[in-house]
Amino acid sequence: MRFALVGNPSVGKSLIFNQLTGLGVEVSNYPGTTVELQRGNTCFQREMIELVDLPGVYSLDGESDEEVLVRRFLEQQDTDAVIAVVNVTRLERNLYLLLQVAEYGLPMVVVLNMADEAAKQGIEIDPGPIRDLLGVEVILTAASQGKNIDRIIPAALAATRPSKVEVPYDHHIEAAVRSLGKISSADRKESIRALQGFGDNPDLLEAARTIADEIESRHRMTVTQIIAANRHNFAHQIAGLTVREKALHHETDPDSILTRIFPGIPILLGILVGMLLVVFIVGSFLEEVIVGLFNVFAIQPFLALGLPPLAEALGTSVLLALQAGLGIAFPYVFLFYVIISVLEDSGYMTRAAFLADNAMHRVGMHGGAVIPLTLAFGCNVPAIMSVRLLHSRRERIIASFLVTMVPCSARTVIIAGIVAGFVGIGAAFSVYAIVFALILVTGLVLSRVTPGERFGMIMEMVPLRRPDARLVMKKAWSRLSEFLFIAMPLLLAGSVVLGLLEFFGFMAIFEQLVEPYTMALLGLPGYSATALVFGILRKEMAFETLAILAGTADLGAVLSSLQLYIFAVVTVLFVPCLATITVLLREVGSRITLAVTLYTVALGLLIGGLMYRILA
Amino acid sequence: MLPSTLEDYLEAILTVTGDGGRPAGPQEIAAAIGTGETAARATIASLVEEGYLERMADDTVRLTGKGLEVASRVARKHRVLQCFLTEMLGVDADAASKEACTLEHGISDETIERLSSYMDGGAQPPPGRAGRCRGREACTLLDCKEGDTVRVAMIRGPRRNRRLLDLGVFPGEVVQIRRKLPNQSVVVRVKGCDIAISPEIATSIVVESCP
Known about the structure:
The structure holds two protein chains of two kinds. By secondary structure, chain A is α/β, with parallel strands linked by helices. Chain A contains 26 helices and ten strands. Chain A folds into three domains: about 160 residues, P-loop containing nucleotide triphosphate hydrolases (Rossmann fold); about 80 residues, no CATH class; about 325 residues, no CATH class. Chain A has a seven-stranded mixed β-sheet, sandwiched between helices. In chain A, strand 3 and strand 4 form a beta hairpin. By secondary structure, chain B is of the alpha+beta class. Chain B folds into two domains: about 140 residues, Winged helix-like DNA-binding domain superfamily/Winged helix DNA-binding domain (Arc Repressor Mutant, subunit A, Orthogonal Bundle), CATH 1.10.10.10; about 70 residues, SH3 type barrels. Chain B has eight helices and eight strands; from the N terminus they run αααββαααββαβββαβ. The two termini of chain B are about 15 Å apart.
């Protein structure tokens, strides 16, 4: 048995999915798309039931990746029943999607979620009319309290009939549906979709096109608009029957402070800065603990074994890679995702995107881009992956450039470890200032020269609510494992290569070759170039490699403050790490990836060179 | 239905060009409507996009077949109404023209036919500035203030903005402006949900103030 959960974004679908499935959730990309699909299993009366959590959508007729995915999933009839989750506090808008889902003719159960919030808002719900009109089981639930969640699976198992509801369309549309049905024996759903220009039957589409033109010239509204309006009006009627609003007791509207310029913008900045502070302070503490434990319990015992030199070099490389991966991945990335998940689930993220919209416009993107850009402070890899949230290729290209320039937690290690540690706190902040200025300039230039149409923001401000702690941890954990899965193998391979090169003495040759150039251009010794090159594998490795090659952890003793400063600036700007490059390839293709890489290399060397000329 | 302002534009273009055959420039049209050239240009652009006007080479526009049909129908309604008001009811000619400007948009084709035959088919176009209306501007969401409640009249480029439809912003729907930032980003409440819309999309949503 397989059931699919369908619903608008932020209706508590994920929470229900998690309560039904527990552990062992598998996140996979739907074939041919970049949209994530969650699958999980649950047991009911000794029967194994697979649950699929489809992404939240507003409609089945749209062209976004999520909408296409849900549509394709429902079209394949690959599920035994659909569990349609509805937010009762926004019933009318949710019913619009529900009516579309009902047209697909699959057995269905309707879950009216957030009954507790509705009660709080003084909304009284009568599930009777929906049950009668749609002819399917309706369950009133409160997922945040776990109320009635246990009734969903039995109801889905009992659901055998599709909904009998038919949206009463405009009489011209109904006539068109009838004639299309006669012409090519298309059913009601297919005809409605053909009238909007969707489908894969060319004859049907052509016939529908002719009729649609006729209707449009009479109504002076597009057929799509008429159909949408009919559905909305029907949803309005049903909502009117279902909901009885009692006298609204006025509650304070948090948006009156969150979405105004003042105090909204200071709050936004405060949250962003606070978030980074927590990540850095708690993260660096955890990192020290983990790295320290690793040294005492893994590396030292390993070295004490006294293995042959080659085996020892290989083993040490693997251990160092594991140490770096766990030291970075666990504390920084995990913490960051906890915070990001809280922001997402609480609904604050959409307020941030709204406030940032205009600023992001200057650099050629809409407010939603604040999400990848903020994510990038944690790690560029997931930030690049979330670039797909943006609508147009133009925005995705601009975002890929800017995101790869944002100092991620690994680069923060370099700034903190090298500049703050050996040069000074003020200098560390100046590195940030330089990088931010360059990001801004890059964005301004790119927004002028990148081809493609500009699209604006149309975004629902999801209701503010308290995030569910277990769901947040689960999300953070799944993102973390994704990160480990992508980055760890590369890190291991890179570390082994580095160890072998060093073991066989290739590094010394390389250093001698590049030393004249690095000295002339950046004023840095040859071994720092090696560190820079291996920083491509993982950014924080540049720091560690430098320490290893310099032969001491006290870098201040072997390099001048200026050299350290230039090294840090170049490393921070220079080339995204290998893991970022791999995801860039997947998201924006090889040409843009190459452009991003070349641009960052050139920028790093240029700025480093300029600094050496000016400051030396 | 087209918003009345847009019908006014089509009617004005028909009038200034005689029979709609020759192209008209934006200054000319703005003068006929009695509005600024910038406002006129924006409205003209949306009419071009909707296929009521076609752009000529030299910044002028001409009525398309579709546009001519709408303009002629509105102009005829104007003539019939003005005639009825002055001839049958004895309303002052200027006042009758103004009144006709308002009524012409709401009255059905059938009523006009009956009114016309009631007047024994003898409706002579009255002299003066027949078929021209000093109208209101075509308002977009951007012209509204925080707290306003307005009705959506038309969405320019509907194919681009499918998501607006799915979120409940479609012609005829009443929306409330919840927030308007100095940078022109707006939040509207529609169907109990708050929707954030960026300026360039808000400017494509033509609205009429709610009665």
